[in-house]
Amino acid sequence: MPVLIKQVTSSRRVSVMAAKTSMPSTDFPATFHASFSDDTHLRIGRGQAKTIVLTYTVPSGLVLTVSSDGTIRQQYANSTTHAATPNEHEAYRVVLGKGTVVSTHKDGSQTIMYASGKAATRRCTSDRFVTVDEQGVVTGGGPSTVNNVRVHIDVDPETRAVMAHRDHDGVIVVTHPNGYVGRLHERWSLAYLTQHGDGTRMYGNATNTHVVVQKEGYAEVSVDVEVNLTAQRHALGIKVAVTKGGIRTRSVVRTDDGTVIEIDYDTRVIASVNGIIRLRKPDGTVIVASDNGVVEFRPQSLSLGDAPPTPRRENEEELDTSTGAYYFNCATGSLHMNDPEHNAYHVVVGDGTVEPVVEVALAGVVTTQDCAKYDVPPLPVQAVVNNPLEPFLLLLHGDGTATEVLRPSDVADYFRQVQRNTHVQRVPTVPPTGTHIYLHHLDRFEHNERWFADHHERRQLFDQVTIPARASPTILKRLHNTAPLQVPIVHIVRHIKEVTPFTPAQFASMLHALEAWHDWCAKREIAQDQYAVLDPRDSETMVATMAVQKKIQAAYKAARAKKKAERQKSKERDKHDADGDTNMSTLQEVENEEDEDDDEDEVYHALDDSDNDSRDELEFNVDDDYELTLNAFGQADTENTGRLNAVQTRRALVHALGTGVTQAEVNAAIPVFTECEDHRVTFEAFSRMLHAFREDQDMATLGDLPTPRGALLPWKMKSPRSKMPSPRLKFGGGHLAAP
What we know:
Blueprint: E1 3-7, E2 13-19, E3 30-36, E4 41-46, E5 52-57, E6 62-67, E7 72-76, E8 90-95, E9 101-105, E10 110-113, E11 119-122, E12 130-132, E13 138-139, E14 151-155, E15 162-166, E16 172-176, E17 191-195, E18 201-205, E19 210-214, E20 220-224, H1 225-235, E21 247-254, E22 260-266, E23 275-280, E24 286-290, E25 294-298, E26 326-329, E27 334-338, E28 344-348, E29 357-361, H2 368-374, E30 393-396, E31 402-405, H3 408-420, E32 424-427, E33 435-441, H4 455-464, H5 473-479, E34 491-499, H6 504-528, H7 539-577, H8 582-607, H9 625-636, H10 646-657, H11 663-673, H12 683-694, H13 699-702
Helix pairs in contact: 7-8, 7-10, 9-10, 10-11, 10-12
């Protein structure tokens, strides 16, 4: 049987730290490097003034250098000839904290582009900048400065947008005044669009708190000006307001391949680091770099999917994101990680002058250091391995290349990714060989915007700023690129080769070891569940049984209380009517009462097969309809979302009614009592539905009723808790409905 191998350069993900032999005194002894399956590369190292610098390279040749001080540098490793993005003249560009772009050309000239429309240029580094402001006033440059330039002002009669155009440098500023009425929003605030001569676009709001910088071929940069100013003041030692403190996002960088880079700053007094850079890949991989040189690598297995983070409830445990993550410390040249089995691994490489140290602490094993620390004899404890991993083999050739021997799980995972991704195609080989070729076309990927702090302002700017349809042809020609906006076409070719690296004897030995490993796994599965007790009943039957048992216990409790009250009344009558020694009579009655209670305890104990009689400590009051409904709804809502699907709704109805309900009846009732498009049942809808089932309404007839707002809704059951009157009462029916 052949074994699948693959070159490291095309592996799923490889993360290493390269030690340096010579370095400045302010630099880290190690640098973090990571390569990804989409042929992107990441490097993290020390920057200037104790900052952290992240360098991200994409297959199109774009190189992003992001610093934790808020500066973002973009440049191409090679030149492109796309008609819409000619960058032969531009060497690199830097985006600063207020959205200002400093463009350096290959001939040595520089251009500073501001979001307000002001621009400054100079021919070489020895010259002074010549600045043209929004009104066309030219300043700087010495006595040979040109005269002021003319600014053309146009007003769009439909949108009332003000368009300012300068022929001198091609700058166009489109400003939408306050009060513009659009089709999607009733009232929009002031927003503007500035486009400079090289095609750089800047979107901003009225207060200039948020600026979005775009240019085709380069990454989009969204800047929070207020947070940047606060971070700069804090970095200089100036006090900042407590209300503006905490971990806040300064800038967000979005690339065409779907990668998002966030630059955060922490102004808290208890913060161990201030500058933080987060990189999020489309597959869910997250890399967090801090100013102190610690890099956290969270693989795809720890990803939460596309769902945005939700606030954690008080009774919920904090999500564990450290187990399974890799922690690289570039300052000490070390690696630390805890696997899902809580086995700890620690590798110290150092600065390359000492021999590396590898430490492994298996879960459940008492080390000699722990025995010496607590003065106990060594304990023969075996390591805990519940989910054993298949071995991973990487062959280093010594010339800088390596070969990875893929595990069957790796191959199966890659094939599943190929089936899910429509942009990956297999290229057939003629004649058929052991080499499999896959062609991957990179397409734009967008994350769920609710993950990021700037999603609201960014979306609002794009919705508010529009290009007037009645603008002059000259302005429209400049605002619309000569070539359509498109992502550079990049194809990645992957070769997976099948070879036979072993002799027959070696291959048989490997199969024997693999078979022994499978046998050990099977024995482990049997051993870890040998004392497990399984209930053959399904979950719905168990819930219904528990509900009936609680109702029976509550009924016995009510009967017992009623009987006790009758005895008390009888005792009081006898006390007033009887003559003689009342004390003896009372004592005799108490003794009889205890005897009767003991007899009833035996009856009740026979109904409960638990160790402790819990009839006096019920979780809820069955006589209270609201508590019964709330308990049934809460037990069915296993996901704690506040909404039930059809199966969970039926389970809750069975719990509350104590009788069986078919799924067809529940499916017919859900569209009648719910108002959501996804037909998820809220607690309020569940209360009305439970009331309808108790009144024995025909579910087949309810399916023909009109929409929920037009239908007569049953009166909601009264809750013992104080609530504000619901606006749905005006649609309700019955004798308590609003007139």
